[in-house]
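thread: overnight batch results

M.L. [08:02]
morning all. the overnight job finished for the chain we discussed friday. pasting input first so we're all looking at the same thing
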Amino acid sequence: MHQCAHHHTPDQSYGWAFSVGVILNLGFVCVEAFFGWYTGSLALLADAGHNLSDVLGLLVAWGGYALAKLPPSPRRTYGWRGSTILGAVFNGLLLLIAVGGIAWEAIGRLSDPTQIPAGTVIGVAMVGVLINTGTALLFVRGRNSDLNIRGAYLHMAADALLSLGVVFAGVVIMWTQWSWVDPVSSLVIAAVIFLGTWGLLKDSVHLALQAVPPNIDFDEVQSALLELPNVTEVHDLHVWAVSTTEVAMTAHVVRPNLENDDAMLKAASDMLHSRFQIDHTTIQIERSISEADCGQAKEGTL
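M.L. [08:03]
and the structure it wrote out:
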């Protein structure tokens, strides 16, 4: 008898965290953009632009988080769980676009630095430090277990660091009157965002291509299956991410000393190929639903 199991990570609600983060950051974007325009500070405008992209990033991550909770259907047998992976990919790309925009404007300003009121810049940026740090802390617990939540956390943590950079630039300008510090600090901001984003984008694209999740050793999974009683061979082993928190696996295991169902399995495989063009099939044989203790059968989902 073959058994199936469906283990889900504990459901921790982040809906309130997303709503609080979006409201706080949207309000701060308006304040920072106004003072950046009023003072002529590129560092403030760059940080405001990045914060605006973070609001969009939070909305995308929130959307993926909400869609992943929808139940499976005959059309989408995994539900919308993959939307969390798409959200992480989008957030990575969004951050890279923000990096390019900040760097381009900063390089242009290096040739013509603008004098700014350092005190105003410092005050506004300090508010940003508090808001971004507070928002990042809302997602800190889920950053290691969910790539989608990690994307939201990286947005906020990077902004907190970058706002500190703006404060530093304002202090330097206040004491030295070196206007070029403002665009230089923007370039540093762009570099920090890029370094923090690359890992997120790489991991999310990795999952989107249905590769083995980075925290799973494929060879160890295969070895563990071979250690099962009476198993002599494992083939057609596939491990991939259903979402940023759930991993799926299919495998064919050979147990020659037990009742042989190869003929039925081959007929089923041939039928699925000829009728539906499904080439990789894994069929789990159960003697009864109650003995198999299959979670999906109990839930009545597809």
